[in-house]
Amino acid sequence: MTDSKTDQNNTPAGVQPDRIDVSSEAAVGEWARKLQVTSMQITDAVAEVGDLATEVEMHLKGTRSTTNSDRTDEVDKL
């Protein structure tokens, strides 16, 4: 049961879950730093699972087959 101070996920009223705005280069960069991945990985993950930060984090942690340094090296070679 929810009350006026929480929603169905027990999130306090007025508080939205973290979402990743891929139209903002600064936001993508910040999330890339927070999750220790490349900006490209953030953008790809949002395309796969949506913009909820928790879903993106789980997607990245659950499917990463290379290390972050490997991915960074790949990007540097482009």
Record keyword descriptors for this entry.
78 residues, mainly alpha, 4 helices
Structure notes:
The chain has a domain at 18-64. It starts with 24 loop residues before the first helix and ends with a helix. The chain is 55% helix and 0% strand. The model has no long low-confidence stretch (mean pLDDT 78). It has 78 residues and is mainly α. The radius of gyration is 15 Å and the shape is globular. The protein has 4 helices and no strands. The chain has helices spanning 25-35, 39-49, 53-63, 68-77.
Short description:
The chain contains four helices and no strands. The protein is mostly helical and about 80 residues long.
Map the helices and strands.
Layout lengths: L24 H11 L3 H11 L3 H11 L4 H10 L1
Topology as H/E string? HHHH
β-strand percent reads under 5%
Q: Calculate Rg over CA atoms.
A: 15 Å
Mean pLDDT: 78
Number of helices: 4
- How many angstroms does the end-to-end distance come to? 52 Å
SS-based class: mainly alpha
Proportion of helical residues: 55-70%
- Major pleated sheet: none
Count of DSSP E strands? 0
Principal-axes shape call: globular
**Residue runs with pLDDT of under 50 for 5 or more positions:** none
